[in-house]
Specification:
alpha/beta
Length: 240
């Protein structure tokens, strides 16, 4: 019977923030091999080092921009590295800017980072997931995918697109053994808040996000969480 060591987990945006915490949690709590994807190799190496301190998982890194479809398609797994069973599409970026002042280039960048990163990564590894008895795709969406955000409209629009993609992917894969989950996150402690005056102690703990995803992977093949909304306990944190 296959064990966790016979499978791997793909985590995008794994070089810092939420993605790094997700990687650390899976390294600590499971035996899955980890494929960590992000743009900056040095930061990925730091994540790999942190994961190695809490587990003995096989770990590979791929320093590519997940929004670049050709770069993602060219990712090669190391010899003997297990095929992916789980994809966690966490890569993205946040633009704090109202729509009137958002340039076309900035708008396109938000779509590339927050939609195409997930599309490209899923397309690269979907065939591997289809060969598994039970697989899972988790897309980190946003509360901004459910409502408009007056201070970050391009971000909200891109996350609306990601949620629409996730819902469509779920329908396409409903007759397979691949579950698809959208996690709509409210304000979460991450590097996106660097330089802001927001009270980080009131934001969602990224370790909670990692634990939620870990729990999703423990569900039986008979069950999938299609969508969930995760928010700070006391509501939206000012001044955002």
């Amino acid at each position: 019977m296959p064990t966790e060591q016979d499978h791997s987990i793909v985590i995008t945006g794994a070089s810092r923030g939420i993605g790094r915490r997700i990687a650390q949690t899976f390294a600590c709590e499971t035996d899955y091999a980890l494929l960590l994807i992000a743009r900056t190799k040095s930061d990925l190496q730091d994540t790999k080092t942190l994961c190695s301190k809490v587990g003995d998982n096989e770990i590979a890194i791929a320093a590519v921009d997940a929004s670049d479809s050709k770069a993602v398609q060219n990712i090669k797994l190391p010899s003997g590295f297990p095929d992916p069973k789980i994809i966690i599409n966490n890569a993205g970026s946040y633009l704090l800017k109202n729509l009137e002042k958002t340039t076309p280039e900035e708008f396109a960048q938000q779509i590339q980072a927050n939609l195409y990163s997930a599309v490209n990564t899923t397309n690269r590894f979907l065939k591997d997931l289809k060969n598994k008895d039970h697989a899972l795709i988790v897309n980190i969406c946003s509360e901004g995918a459910l409502v408009g955000l007056e201070d970050s409209g391009a971000y909200s629009a891109s996350k609306h697109a990601l949620l629409g993609y996730t819902r469509s992917l779920r329908k396409e894969l409903i007759d397979t053994e691949i579950g698809v989950t959208a996690i709509n996150l409210g304000q979460t402690q991450s590097t996106s808040w660097e330089g802001s005056l927001i009270d980080r102690d009131l934001l969602i703990d990224p370790d909670d996000v990692a634990q939620i995803i870990l729990n999703l992977t423990l569900l039986s093949p008979r069950t999938v969480v299609e969508e969930m909304l995760v928010k700070p306990q006391h509501g939206r944190v000012p001044p955002m």
